[in-house]
Amino acid sequence: MRGILMIKMSRCFLWCCLGVSSQVAMAQAQTPVLKKIAAGGHLVLAHRESSIPFSYLNGDKKPVGYALDLCLKIAEAVRKKTSMPNMVVDYLQVTPANRIDMVAQGTADLECGSTTNNAERRQKVAFTIPHFITGARLLVRSDSPITLLEGLEGKRLVSTKGTTPLKAAIQANRERMLRIQILEASDHEKAVEMVEKGEADAFVMDDVLLYGLAASRPNPAGLKVVGKFLTTEPLAIMLPKGDPDFKALVDEEMRHLIYSGEARTIYNKWFMQPIPPKNTSLSMPMSYLLKDFWKYPSDQVPL
């Protein structure tokens, strides 16, 4: 009996080692980004479909947004560093469910969206300095009496698959025994539609995204953002883990954009001025949280 047990344990140990070895081999097999570009490769920017105003498709189905503008500045720094002025930038549309894997596997070099930097994700990918700090709140119909998460007891709450607000909602529902029916949507657009159609009573997501999504709807006045912050979310550009030279360049360029004031100019373009597709303004001045964080910009966040 002991011999059988030892064999099973040995097999388990072997499979664990093989799993770790395969992950290490995959990481080592990926060509460092700057080396790839210097050899004539393309820089791949991952973008989202409906993360307004960070990363989304405009009326012409072209990727645009605040995070994308920052990524394009980083792309210029990559061109200079590698002495490749004709470097080609490719765009890759990703979803909340696959965005981390696309970067971790080396399919995308930068993910220019609205992704939260936290400890769980840092096991797979790296992050640069946050470009926004937000928190999760609720989007409901304007005629809804719901103002807090507790008001959803026994009701339906939707969030987007693969997001931190979804995990936070599941945890809060369990800990507070609210009996909320948690629904998952494939993307932000679908989640908003579910609220509009009455298929869900609220949509929990980063409040800045909720404001942007509501402003882009056929009837913006039919929706409202309510509730206290369920989470605190430092949003940052993702990049491959284990590529120190590329990360150093990205961090250096982000600090340059912040200290020179260019980052604030880009912020005002997307949060304080009319933006596509409806040419309406979010009218969201920079928060004191982001202003304070940018005084000493770092990729270190307390999550």
TrEMBL record:
SUPFAM superfamilies: Periplasmic binding protein-like II (SSF53850). Residues 42-274 form the Solute-binding protein family 3/N-terminal domain. InterPro entries: Bact_solute-bind_prot3, Iontro_rcpt_C, Solute-binding_3/MltF_N. Residues 1-27 form the signal peptide. Keywords: Signal, Transport. Pfam families: SBP_bac_3. Residues 47-273 form the Ionotropic glutamate receptor C-terminal domain. Belongs to the bacterial solute-binding protein 3 family. This is Glutamate/aspartate import solute-binding protein. The lineage of its organism: Bacteria, Pseudomonadati, Pseudomonadota, Betaproteobacteria, Burkholderiales.
